[in-house]
Structures are given as structure tokens and as C-alpha cells.
Amino acid sequence: MSDHSSIHDVAVVGGGPAGLAAAIAIAQSGAKVALIARRSAYADNRTTALLGESIDFLEALQVWPHCMDKAAALRVMRLIDDTGRLIRAPEVRFSCDEIGLDVFGYNIENRVLVSALEERAAALTSLTRFDDEAAAIVAQDDIVSVQLANGGALSARLVVGADGRHSLCREAAAITVQRRELRQAALTFNISHSRPHQNISTEFHTPQGPCVFVPLPGNRSSVVWVAEPKEADRLMALSDEELSDAAEVRSHSILGKMQVEPGRNRFLLAIEQPRQFANTRIALVGEAAHVLPPIGAQGLNMGLRDAADLAEVVRNALAAGEDPGSSSVLNRYASARRPDVMSRTFAIDIANRSLLSAFLPMQSLRAAGLHLIGSFGPLRRLAMREGLAPSWRPSPSAYAVTATRDVRSE
User: Fold this and answer.
1) What is the pLDDT of residues 304-332, one digit of tens each?
2) What's the CATH code of the domain at 337?
3) Is 305 exposed, middle or buried (0-12, 13-18, 19+ CB in 10 A)?
4) CA end-to-end span of the chain
5) Residue 405 is assigned to a structural domain of this protein
6) pTM above 0.85, yes or no
7) CA–CA separation, 189 vs 35, rounded Å?
């Protein structure tokens, strides 16, 4: 480990998937990177549906080959109106082969993904890992000082805040957040089932929110069940047998007999947007930069796009001899991220509001919109492509940053 007093090009604070991906991508760009994150086992069994561009990015980071065999392909996505309301939308079915793809993406347990990212991070000689936490961050005109919890310190020209929704980095950058509680909670757990899922992800729309069954390897699926907080509490308190029965009823037994696996999580939903994506030599990625409900599999996929865009901006800045923490560089990162984050947040918010609304005209509009998407091929294909990644973004090959041979071992 290098001297704590040395100056790094970039310091990344936070060791979740978005932080690890950002540290790896920036290190591969040729920057001298410090990663400040405790080494600890990932705490739960939540999963992420990684969509096409995220897979391409992880390929460029040399991470995906080390975890792809533990992921399940997503080839079909079904949306089913299970609200029981007077006006209901028809089922909408999206198939990857309709837009010339073998898969939309893959569903993987976060702990498996984090393990593969950790392995790659450890192999990069330009990345120094500090097994610690940031205790204080002070941004100055030409440098950012990071005090570590164990008493050490380091400095960097740019700090990447990947430290979650209660971000110390965001606070140090004096970036305020607009937050809106959704009066919904999500219950997440994994199940085994007697019938094969056939790589089909099925989302049931209920009056309280969506309940989605996403394939995992074998006859297993992950479940994200969005409901009112009291209902989520009730489900959380059920025994394994009772929750297994409840999930089977909610799924209309499409996957047969179900058995809940150990480990479940419940969390309140909100939408959070920062006023800025970067300020005073600090750039935000992941949940430090945006918090969304688990609808449309956008959360971590957006975090990985944060990492990819920031790495590209830093790579170009270094190649041009620029200071990676300068205001002009940070402005380029903010400009790259703002359209994606704002448009995705708006779309998810509208989709969620339309589902929850009991207002008949809103139900009619929602049903008509889904009917149009389901029945009109060009619109359906456009929705699929835009759901995977914004069409205006550059090719993921642009993220295959340069120093990919800078490793201790392959």
C-alpha cells in the first residue's frame, strides 16, 4: 500500500458495485486511483437485472467473464395488469429477438457481482485500496483532502462520491438533494419454484405497485414486491411457508409451487435527485447521485452508466493534460449524465403514478398507452431499445478504456 500522504489523480469513496466499477474504469484509463472502502462480505442476497449496455461495460472492465456463469439470461419481459380495476391494460410482452438481440440482459446476485469487481480491482496496479472509511472530506481550490477513520489521510485532484444515499462526499461538495417519499415499500427475496421460468421476467401490476419475478439460474427467481408500507410489513412478518404461499398466489402459480429462500429485505421507496452531479472537485455516482424505486431495473444500470461516463471524461481530460477535478471537467460529466438521469427519473415516476392512480381517466390513459405499445410493433421496439439504454449515448466500446493490461495477474 502506498503512502497515505501521496496525491492521487482520483479517490473513490465507497465500495458498492457503482464505486468499484468507477474505480476500475478510471484506473484502466491510466489515472492513479485510490479506493476507500471496507473489505466486507456483501450483506444481503438482493439481485440486479443488468441490461445490455451494463454487460458491455463490465466486459470492458474484464469483470463479466468471472461472474456470467452465475447469472440468468433475460429474454422475455411480460407486463400483466393485475389491479382488478374496471379499466385494465392488456398484457404487454417484450421479446429480445424482436430487436435482434439474444438477451435483454442478465439477472445476478449483487454479492456475486461485487466479488468479481473486487477481484478485478485487486489486479490493477494503478489502483490502491484503503481498507477504511472516509471520516471527513475537505475540498480546496486545487486538491481534496480525505481523512480516514483510522487516522490516516490522503489527497486527490478529484473525489468520486460512491458512498450511497447518505453521502458524506455530497455533503462535502455542498450539493443539496430534492427528495420525495413515495409511501411505498419494497420487499425483496429469492424463491425456488417447481416450473422453469424459461428466462421470462414477469411483472404483475397491482394497485399498490409492481411485483416482479425475475429469473435466476436454475428453477429460481428473485422477487421485488412493491406495496404500501403496512402491507410490506405484513408480508415481511410472514413465515417462510406463508410467504411462499403468498408469492404463489400473487404470481397466479405461473411458476408452480414456490419456496422462499433464507434472507429477505424491506426498504422504503423514495425518489432523490441532487441539485448538481458534481461540484468543488467532487463527482457523484450511484445512489449518491440518484435514488429511484425498483421499477424498470434502472437503479444500478444508471450507476454503471455514471461510472462509464465519468471514466470517459477523466480519460479524455488526462489525455489532454487537464486537471481531472477542474470545473470544466466536472461540467462535462454533469452534462453527460443529466439527460439520462432526468429522463429516466421522470419516466419511472410517471409510470408509478399512473399505476397507483384510481382516477378513471388516468386508468384509461395508462391502458391505452400500454395497448398501443403492445400492438404497434415500431413503438414496442422503440420502447425496448430505449429501456435498455438511451439511444443518444455513444457505443459502449468507447468505455473500453486503455490500460487494460495494467494488472498484477491475469
Assistant:
1) 999 999 999 999 999 999 999 999 999 99
2) 3.50.50.60
3) buried
4) 20
5) no
6) yes
7) 30
